[in-house]
Amino acid sequence: METTKILCPFCESPFVIQVPPASLLDTLATLISLHSFQCEACKKRFRIKQHGGQSSSGQDPRRKSLRVPVQIPVTFESNEVSGEGMLTDMSLHGCTLETKETKQNIQSGLVIKLNLPASAAGKPNSPVQQLVTVMGVNGNRVGLKFLAYSFQERDALTQTVTRSARIFAR
């Protein structure tokens, strides 16, 4: 069965997750197959008609955020390692990096500066640099978690990830 991609009707972000009913009206709406969703980018809730009660967002239940497949060429650097690779999926909390440099001291806990292309930022000649921490390494795949410290940095990261997912989605 093919799943349909749900986009936020407010900001068109693909980072939409099904959420439990938050009110009596939400609960009653599920009786007529209107299920509650929330956009992780703009935080707005909405309902979509779905039969069977299954989320078609494709979210892995082990993750707290939807991962969107992308193909984004990046470079990265830290005191211990540097190189280039390809982001193969993104969420608002992290991403997966495929790189040949995994044999070069990339270990869990390492903090890396990730350099995304200028088109991800939506500004010409303005690449985005984002701090990430390595969560795990499996072969040539590296699981990364975004580090954001202030509300402004978190908001900028959310906009960058949403924009990148739209531009680089497969």
Write the layout of secondary structure elements.
Blueprint: E1 16-18, H1 24-30, E2 34-39, E3 45-49, E4 68-77, E5 82-90, E6 94-99, E7 111-116, H2 118-121, E8 128-138, E9 141-146, H3 151-168
Antiparallel strand pairs: 1-2, 2-3, 4-5, 4-7, 5-6, 6-9, 7-8, 8-9
Outline the structure in words.
A hairpin with a 2-residue loop joins β8 (128-138) and β9 (141-146). The protein has a 6-stranded antiparallel beta barrel with strand order 4-5-6-9-8-7. The chain has helices at residues 24-30, 118-121, 151-168; strands at 16-18, 34-39, 45-49, 68-77, 82-90, 94-99, 111-116, 128-138, 141-146. It contains 3 helices and 9 strands; from the N terminus they run βαββββββαββα. By secondary structure, it is an alpha+beta fold. 17% of the residues lie in helices and 36% in strands.
